[in-house]
Every structure is written in structure tokens, then in C-alpha cells.
Amino acid sequence: MTNASDLIAxxxxxxxxxxxxxxxxxxxxxxxxxxxxxxxPGGTVANxxxxxxxxxxxxILEDSRRExxxxxxxxxxxxxxxxxxxGGSVPVKGNRVAPGYTADDGATVPASDWLTIDDVVETxxxxxxxxxxxxxxx
Length: 138
Prior knowledge:
The protein is mostly beta strands. Helix content is 14%, strand content 42%. The longest helix has 19 residues, at 4-22.
């Protein structure tokens, strides 16, 4: 039986291969995104503070789809999402991502390149996270 880390490595390799086959924005290690992780909240209720942000590199494949109504007609809204291989930092709602960047770029990513995470759907058979579908705010 294959263990979870082997499956995660296969999924990551599959995302890289899919990005290369589709001609997506592919870097040296496949298509990446910089994940901005909010700092730990601190301070007091009257004077809240936030600790320093940290950054992580995600292996991703960008995707989008048009929303449809119940009868199957497109409604004009496009949903942008990222497929993210598990095994590293976990994306969560409210954090931001910058496709095409790495963690090393985090502090210098232009404000216009950050996208806010609206929702995250985890694929975790038997409770082991393998893949995240990250829905981005429109």
C-alpha cells in the first residue's frame, strides 16, 4: 500500500506536469504561488496587534469555471480557483496568495498581485489531506 507522503508527491508531480502541458506560467519547480500567512493576533481588546506575516511556497494549478444556474445556463460569473498540493503550509480562508511568486518574493509582491482566499475545500480520504481546492474572491 502506498503511504500518504507518496500520494502527496504524486499529486504535486501531477500538478507540475499539468501546468507544463497546458503552457501555464511554469517556473523551475512547476507553477508556484506565494501564500501569505497572517501573523498571530496579540495585544489587548482595546489595542489589538498582529504578529509578523510569514510566507510559504505552494505548488499550484490555476483553473476557472463559469457558474451555472439550476437549468444549466451560464450566469456570467467566473470562479477562479487554485488546485494546491498538500504536504506543506495549509491555505485558509482570509489568507492571500500571489500566483507566479514564491515565499522568497513575499515581502516584495505588488499589492495588485495578491488574491484573497474565499474558501478552501480539502480532499482528505481517510483523514489524510492530499489536495486543496482554493476558491479565490472575485
